[in-house]
Amino acid sequence: MSGGEYMPTCSHCHREWTYWQAFKQSFRLTKICPFCRKENYEGNQKQGGIYSLILVLLFILANSFFDIPIAWVLPIVIIYFVLFTFIRPCFMKLYTKQQPYW
Ligand SMILES: [Zn+2]
């Protein structure tokens, strides 16, 4: 997986990161560019958190409405979080400064 308009681009040197470079940096609050070693900050971090929270709440609601066995819920949530972890690098928006939390 390389190239394409979906991978994050360094806000300093504007070079595109590869998927694995972005993946490694997605676990860090401050993302160090593998090319210029400068710090980048993620812009849509809070958004991602809200989406995952909504999804977890939906699972809980679905569980109480449709009587989904509780044993199903946990694997679904785990699969979602694994998927989210792997998809997240593709949606990272990098900024030179930390974005304000509004
Ligand atoms: Zn850079």
Key terms for this structure?
single chain, 102 residues, mainly alpha, elongated, binds zinc ion
General description of the model:
Strands 1-2-3 form a three-stranded antiparallel beta sheet, with no helix packed on it. Helix 2 runs antiparallel to helix 3. It is mainly alpha-helical and about 100 residues long. Strand 1 and strand 2 form a beta hairpin. The protein is built from three helices and three strands, in the order αββααβ. The protein has one domain. Bound molecules: zinc ion (ZN). The site of zinc ion has 8 residues, from loops.
What is this structure, in a nutshell?
The protein has 102 residues and is mostly helical.
Spatial sequence of strands, sheet with the most strands: 1-2-3
Cα Rg: 17 Å
**Helix vs. strand class:** mainly alpha
Overall mean pLDDT score?
82
- Portion of residues in beta strands equals 5-15%
Question: What is the end-to-end distance?
Answer: 33 Å
Q: How many extended strands?
A: 3
- The helicity comes to 40-55%
Shape category: elongated
Q: Note the total helix count.
A: 3
Largest sheet: 3 strands, antiparallel
Bound ligands? zinc ion
Ranges where pLDDT stays below 50 over 5 or more residues in a row are: none
Task: Give the number of domains.
Answer: 1
Order of helices and strands: HEEHHE
Reconstruct the topology from this structure.
Blueprint: H1 19-25, E1 30-32, E2 39-42, H2 45-66, H3 70-87, E3 94-95
Antiparallel strand pairs: 1-2, 2-3
Helix pairs in contact: 2-3
The structure holds zinc ion.
Zinc ion (ZN) binds next to loops.
